[in-house]
């Protein structure tokens, strides 16, 4: 099996994971805004998310012949390591719940703010827990100021959302016939410019999750729930690979990062499969009912959904590979993924176009905090013996 051992290699894994994990939410948001049902999208996504873990396990996990201290992937499948497998699967369950929640949160509060809030909660809770689980191998005097930057970012992210929501209300109030346009679809079909009231109305008519008239508290509630779920998955994975609580029997080697990631992704897949199939017939947030047959026949955007699953799967795998080498607290620097998501949100979806000066100032402040935070957290990287 191949292991990342150098600090430079770990940082390279984290940077690549940052790009992947910041891009896949933009792909799923694009599909929702084009009207594809999130249940259909997430079922496609979860298939390739598991496929990425299988590919990583049979490549990096089988590259070299295993030893007793470091068995390869296939050898570990038959070993008595159930406690560590359980921690890995718990991590997959909470990640699946978090990812499932965010696909609904994106519709209510936007891609950028959702990623900011969930990532910041993940860092504040998850990084602190990982620091102690990893035996304090990361530099506390550098790590925790970085966590503080994330905490400031979550406050700024909430402020950005509130300011941008006020801007959108002002735009919509300027349309005297907004309600008639939304209900009857009487507005012209020409493409509106991003940032305008016409654009917001056309987006509402086209998207699968309708948000007009719904309280933003719903979106923020879903977002904070997702952030709490995300804050637990790396500590659970840390316990799975390093057995800090000494749950394994004497002589049983620790799970490799690749074996743990396989079980992690397997539980993530089954939770997503069960919940999304149930959501086909019992949808939430007033989404239309659908069927498994309709999902099978829905090829509109399927390629993008499958791509999103691969990006997320490889992103998580790279994060764990870097974390095993340099400490999972430092690997949480990939939670600066809103830097990437906000870029895609502005470029692809016209988020924050024609917003107020106040919104732009808050947005710049939020992104600045993330740039500082990712640099500080990576600088705190240690070296696991």
UniProtKB/TrEMBL annotation:
Record carries keyword Phosphoprotein: no
GO molecular function, one term: uracil:monoatomic cation symporter activity
One Pfam family of this chain: Ureide_permease
GO cellular component labels: membrane
Subcellular location: Membrane
Name of this chain's protein: Ureide permease 1-like
InterPro entries in UniProt: UPS_plant (IPR030189), Ureide_permease (IPR009834)
Family: Belongs to the plant ureide permease (TC 2.A.7.19) family.
Keyword Secreted: no
């Amino acid at each position: 099996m191949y292991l990342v051992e150098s600090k430079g290699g770990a940082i390279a894994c984290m940077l690549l994971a940052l790009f992947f994990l910041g891009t896949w939410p933009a792909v799923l948001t694009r599909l929702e805004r084009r009207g594809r049902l999130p249940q259909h999208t997430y079922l496609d996504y979860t298939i390739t998310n598991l496929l990425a873990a299988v590919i990583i396990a049979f490549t990096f996990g089988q590259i070299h012949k295993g030893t007793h201290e470091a068995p390869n992937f296939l050898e570990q499948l038959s070993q008595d390591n159930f406690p560590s497998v359980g921690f890995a699967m718990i991590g997959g369950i909470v990640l699946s719940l978090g990812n499932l929640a965010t696909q609904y949160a994106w519709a209510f509060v936007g891609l950028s703010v959702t990623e900011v809030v969930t990532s910041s909660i993940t860092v504040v809770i998850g990084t602190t827990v990982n620091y102690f689980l990893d035996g304090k191998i990361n530099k506390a005097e550098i790590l925790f100021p970085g966590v503080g930057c994330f905490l400031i970012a979550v406050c700024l992210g909430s402020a950005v959302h509130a300011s941008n929501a006020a801007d959108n209300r002002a735009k919509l109030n300027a349309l005297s016939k907004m309600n008639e346009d939304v209900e009857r679809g009487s507005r012209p079909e020409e493409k509106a410019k991003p940032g305008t009231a016409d654009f917001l109305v056309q987006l509402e008519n086209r998207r699968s999750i309708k948000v007009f008239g719904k309280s933003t508290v719903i979106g923020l509630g879903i977002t904070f729930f997702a952030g709490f779920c995300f804050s637990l998955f790396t500590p659970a994975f840390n316990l799975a690979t390093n057995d800090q609580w000494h749950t394994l029997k004497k002589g049983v080697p620790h799970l490799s990062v690749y074996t743990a990631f396989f079980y992690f992704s397997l539980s993530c897949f089954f939770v997503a499969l069960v919940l999304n199939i149930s959501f086909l017939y019992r949808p939430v947030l007033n989404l239309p009912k659908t069927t498994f047959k309709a999902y099978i026949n829905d090829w509109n955007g399927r390629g993008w959904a499958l791509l999103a699953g691969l990006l997320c799967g490889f992103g998580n795998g790279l994060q764990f590979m870097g974390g095993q080498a340099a400490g999972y607290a430092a690997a949480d620097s990939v939670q600066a993924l809103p830097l990437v998501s906000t870029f895609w949100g502005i470029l692809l979806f016209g988020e924050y176009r024609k917003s107020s000066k106040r919104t732009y100032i808050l947005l710049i402040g939020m992104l600045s905090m993330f740039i500082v935070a990712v640099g500080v957290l990576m600088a705190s990287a240690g070296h696991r013996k």
